Amino acid sequence: MSHIKKDKVRETPAVSTASLPDIVFMLLFFFMVATTMREVTLKVAVNKPQATEIQKLERKDLVTYIYVGTPRDETLYGTEPRVQLDDQLGTVDDVQTFVVVAREEINEAEQPLMTVSIKADGEVKMGLISDIKQELRKAQALKINYSTMPAIDAAGMIESNL
Amino acid sequence: MKSRRSSSFNAGSTADIAFLLLVFFLLVTTMQSEVGMQRKLPQLSNETPTAPIADHNILPIFVNSKGDLMVNQEYLELDGLRSLVKTFVDNNKLGTCTYCQGDGLENLSDSPKKAVVSITSDRNASYATYISVQNEIAAAYNELRNEMAVREYGVEFDDLKGDVQEIILRSYPMIVSEAQVELGSAVATAP
């Protein structure tokens, strides 16, 4: 009897970790479904403005992105807002070539459906944006999308954008 | 006994493998979904537009470098823009628009199909202000379309079928013209 008692005290019930892989796999699948792959490493800081009247961007393979904002590496690129095309910082003059090249990569039948998404920081001046839009018109890329953050209500949007 | 024992394998490392995969996906993916405002830019042409638009069919909106708005030669707060655009578009001066609810004022648009909202922004205005203005204009049109859907079909615009939505979209076409003020030039004349 005493022998059995001794044994019971020494044995601490271990937490079963058998379900741990299942839990982690569940988390894994959640993240695989809910997230999208990063397209490029951002070299400019983009804090998108908010808007309420927005649509979802469909057909990601037909979308070309143009990033506009102040460079993250200020010592190297300065503080003036710059345009990022793919992985490089460019100027407004590079936009036309970039868009034409990007369109060439799309299947010919679907080229008219190409959308250019402008992801610009809210602080960027309209002059730069207008110049980019003018370049896009020169490149015949007329379908554009102003990338924004979804806002819950109009009052909050106005406040955050000012 | 021997064969039964070999059928179970050590599953202890599956958790580690799954964690590794999880960390990988956490690092290379982003949570943000892609949303934005779709717009169509006008064709680039050297010809000057021939058909002149009557003054009362244009709602001129000016945005200065500080983000202030001037609409119809008057200062306006951003939160008043939506209702102003709605009254302008829905005005129905000619009385030809059967679905309009406007008062038919003299100085506002003939019909929604003729109404042009014009945004002129200073080069030093911020992009966020411009997006807010675009957003308010879009909101005004969306409200008008939704009101028409409820009035004529009894359901919200989003719940209507595609072809009926098309009819409403054509009834309230969103026509926005954009111009840009060069640095230092006067903003006296409407485009």
3D structure, described in words:
The complex is a heterodimer of chains A (162) and B (191). Chain A folds into two domains: 2-34, no CATH class; 44-161, Nucleotidyltransferase, domain 5 (2-Layer Sandwich), CATH 3.30.420.270. Chain A is 37% helix and 23% strand. Chain A has helices at 2-10, 20-34, 74-77, 94-104, 126-138, 154-161, and strands at 36-37, 44-45, 50-51, 55-56, 63-71, 82-85, 88-90, 115-120, 143-147, 149-150. In chain A, strands 2, 5, 6, 7, 8 and 9 form a six-stranded mixed sheet that branches. Chain A is elongated and about 80 Å long. Chain B starts with a helix and ends in a 10-residue tail after the last strand. Chain B is of the alpha/beta class and 191 residues long. Chain B has a domain at 55-181. At the A-B interface, helix 2, strand 1, strand 3, strand 4 and strand 8 of A face helix 2, strand 1, strand 2 and helix 4 of B. Strand 1 of chain A pairs antiparallel with strand 1 (29-30) of chain B.
